[in-house]
Amino acid sequence: MDLKSLMQPCISPGLNRGKPGCNTLPVILTTIHCALKRAGFLFLLTLAAHSVRGENWPCWRGPRGDGTSLEQKPPTRWSATENIAWKTPIPGEGHSSPIIWDDRVFVTSALKETQDRILLSLDRKTGAVLWQQAVVRAPLEAKNKENSYASATPATDGEKVFVTFLDGEKVVIAAFDFTGKQLWMVRPGDFKSQWGFSHTPVLFEDKVIVVCYSKGENFIVAVSRADGHTVWKTACENPTLSYSPPLIAKMAGRIQMIAAGDKAVTSYDPQTGKMLWMIDGPSDDFVVAPVYHPKADLVLACSSWPGKMLVAIRPDGQGNVTSNKVAWKTAQGTPYVPSPIAVGDWFFTSGFVGKSAHCYEAATGRILWKEPMGLHHASPVSANGLLYFLNDEGVMHVVKAGPKFELVARNDLGEGAYASPALSGNQVFLRGFTNLYCIGKQGQ
User: Fold this and answer.
1) How far is CA 253 from CA 79, 214, 272, 315, 363, in A?
2) The pLDDT value given to residue 414
3) Tens-digit pLDDT profile for residues 278-328
4) Is the entire prediction scored with pTM above 0.85?
5) Are strands 298-302 and 310-313 parallel, antiparallel or unpaired?
6) CA 146/CA 125 separation, integer angstroms
7) Cβ(91)–Cβ(424) below 8 Å
8) What is the number of alpha carbons within 13 Å of residue 238 lying toward its C-beta?
9) I need a surface site. Which of 294, 343, 373, 402 has the fewest CB within 10 A?
């Protein structure tokens, strides 16, 4: 709506709008006053609509890529039958997480019978499937029994939905609009791994970035969101079997992309793909995605195989900083698949050995508490000072973020889950092995 349309209805017909003189200033003042009132009203309407709809969850681990949400009243209690807004069976199999944009939910899956990898769009209010589109039909690749043929979470910019799959030994990146129409598809490189594919797209400005660490062509690629053409492509030196999505954030005064894999933790410039800094190791392969703690000014990464090691890195270096930028490291409480989260003054992990969640003092790595919660593949998320840990059995432990363990609720979904939760509009979206759940009332 332009300024003229805002102003026109507010002008009183009794005022002389055509003549200069004593009436001109009142007309102008009245017009401006009414325009501001109208604009303010529209702003309040927009704000109210946003408060009901909530923050979008446009990609894996949410709008900041770190599992944090700005929602103020997320649900804390539910069961298989209580506080469930809707429950929708998802055809096929997949461990990708749902993403949410306004009134849409998107998720991927794989139909083993037809060998189709598919993208689905659901109505956020009802859970009804609006459309289902096949992205790739290809032979089923070799994979780990805990992986799936649709493990990479899609990403959206509100206009397009971007997905990644494997077609034989070719990496596929594709874009669809919100009606399900395919806009483009590219195959930017080769991929080889006996453990399968799970390389999630990450959006940065006008680019879709995919880290493709593998035993085949070992690379990172940025393609155009508009048409899929390659903007830059970086070859990596040490072929590995890493699955860690990158983290893009402003750290140490510059935008950095932290990628864990290639037998290293490496910071890149996401504009160009050029390396900024790196540390060696701490092991070969990575599944865990890094997180950044702004207050402590530390990046926390964790290797997965053959050794598990948490390492906290100061992100202000240049070149190889293995000897001078590692603030602390520990093998205690290390996860194998789920990524850590940074909240308050702490880091939190879902540890593999002992199946326990851990709380660390971010600045020092000192363990403040650990509590058994079961084995996790899903990464924790947070909102309103609460942590949400979803274990493989579908049990969600809701915990107050703090230096002392405080359990708020233990909720059993009644269905196993590997996919990470999504938060939007004070609702929790959970993908089980069979169903997709929406928990809580929107805008409650």
Assistant:
1) 44, 31, 17, 10, 19
2) 96
3) 999 888 888 999 999 999 999 999 998 888 999 999 999 999 999 999 999
4) yes
5) antiparallel
6) 31
7) no
8) 15
9) 294
Query: Distance between CA 159 and CA 102 in Å, rounded?
Result: 11
3-state DSSP call for residue 164? strand
Contact 337/287 with Cβ under 8 angstroms? yes
Residue with tokens 């397009």: 160
* CA distance linking residue 387 with residue 392, whole number of Å: 16
Kindly calculate the radius of gyration of the chain based on its CA atoms and give it in whole angstroms.
24
The amino acid at residue 236 is C
Torsion of CA 181, 270, 70, 369, to 10 degrees: 120
Provide long-range contacts, Cβ within 8 A and 24+ apart, for 328-333: 328/364, 328/365, 329/282, 329/365, 330/360, 330/365, 330/367, 331/307, 332/358, 332/367, 333/358, 333/360, 333/367, 333/370
pLDDT digits (tens, 9 = 90+) for 393-414: 999 999 999 999 999 999 999 9
Could you give phi then psi for residue 369, rounded to 5 degrees?
-160, 160
CA distances to 137, 198, 228 from 168, rounded to whole Å, are: 10, 14, 20
The predicted-structure confidence for 238-292, as pLDDT tens digits, reads as follows: 888 888 899 999 999 999 999 999 899 999 999 999 999 999 988 888 899 999 9
Query: Which tokens hold the place of 165?
Result: 């799959």
DSSP codes joined into one string, 269-291: -TTT--EEEEEE-S-SB--SPPE
Residue 323 burial (C-beta neighbours within 10 Å; 0-12, 13-18, 19+): exposed
Give me the percent of the chain exceeding a pLDDT of 90.
80
Question: What percent of the chain lies above the pLDDT cut of 70?
Answer: 88
Q: What CATH code would you report for 54-439?
A: 2.130.10.10
Domain boundaries, the chain: 3-46, 54-439
pLDDT of residue 16: 34
CA 420-192-96 angle, 5° bins? 15
